[in-house]
Specification:
By secondary structure, the chain is α+β, with helices and mostly antiparallel strands. The protein is about 50% helix and about 20% strand. The protein contains seven helices and eleven strands. The strands form four sheets. Strands 6, 7, 8 and 9 form a four-stranded antiparallel sheet that branches. It starts with a helix and ends with a strand.
Length: about 280
């Protein structure tokens, strides 16, 4: 009896082990035959070195157990080259040094917004690899910036034309990257460092120009005040002229007599040879 029970237990344990092994194998097969491509990515299918022509779109997919899926981002990404250590993609300072039109060296801190063209992911993976940013984006950005800056004087980079520099860089860089399957979204000129003496000279010049504009404004204000006073004086003169033309001897005599009572002390002189002077009583 004990032997029979032992055989049954062994048989049950063997069956349980078989079931567990079957489940493990099924899970492994399922995992090797399926993949999930996250949102904002495409999957590049590589079967033993043979890259398929069609990318996998975001979502759940069945695949060959021999296929490797390389998930490449198609989201907007930022690549920064900065003089601030560890702020950019490279360790330490990664500022771009460029020569201006007059041969002065300027340091440029920049950020580029870009993204991979989804339909170009397979070709990008086959011809360049997943590190296309370091192979294409970074070198082209640095080259185009130097070419564009060479057409500007240093003082222009310090003024409102700085925005135009960013536009020129974008216009030159966009078609170059598009040809390689990268979409350029925006170029951000974060900071342009000019030589110290030049910066001081430009600031002094800008201050002088602002003072000149201020003086011009003050002159305009004074000129307007002058015109106001002239117009006011002409109005007063015209009024006096009108009043003078309307006055007569009779009116002035009447007006004088009518206002005698408003004075504190008035001397009355009677008309005639025998008249006696009289004084108004003081209040």
């Amino acid at each position: 009896m004990k032997k029979l029970i032992g055989n049954k237990n062994a048989s049950a344990e063997g069956a349980a082990a078989l079931i567990i092994c079957t489940i493990v194998v099924a899970v492994l097969v399922f995992l090797t035959c399926t993949t999930v491509v996250p949102a904002g990515h495409v999957g590049v299918v590589d079967v033993l070195g043979n890259v398929e022509d069609t990318e996998l779109q975001p979502g759940f997919h069945f695949k060959s157990p021999l296929a490797g899926i390389h998930k490449m981002s198609t989201q907007t990404q930022a690549y920064t080259m900065s003089f601030v250590p560890d702020e950019g993609e490279k360790q330490g300072s990664d500022v771009i040094s460029a020569l201006t039109k007059e041969g002065l060296t300027v340091d440029i801190d920049i950020t580029v917004w870009y993204k991979l063209t989804p339909a170009y992911a397979n070709e990008m993976y086959k011809t360049i690899g997943e590190n296309y940013v370091g192979v294409i984006v970074r070198p082209q950005v640095r080259t185009i910036i130097r070419e564009v800056v060479a057409g500007y004087e240093a003082k222009q980079l310090y003024s409102e034309e700085r925005q135009q520099v960013a536009i020129d860089i974008s216009e030159e860089l966009s078609p170059v990257l598009n040809d390689r399957g990268v979409i350029l979204e925006r170029v951000l000129l974060r900071h342009i460092q000019l030589p110290g003496q030049l910066t001081k000279a430009i600031e002094e010049k800008l201050t002088a120009e602002q003072n000149i504009e201020k003086r011009k404004f003050e002159v305009q204000v004074e000129e307007q005040e002058k015109q106001r006073k002239i117009i006011e004086a002409e109005g007063i003169a015209s009024a006096n002229e009108i009043i003078a033309e309307s006055l007569s001897t009779e009116y002035l005599t009447w007006y004088w007599i009518e206002n005698l009572d408003s004075h504190e002390s008035v001397l009355y002189v009677p008309v005639g040879s025998g008249g006696v002077p009289l004084f108004k009583e003081l209040k």
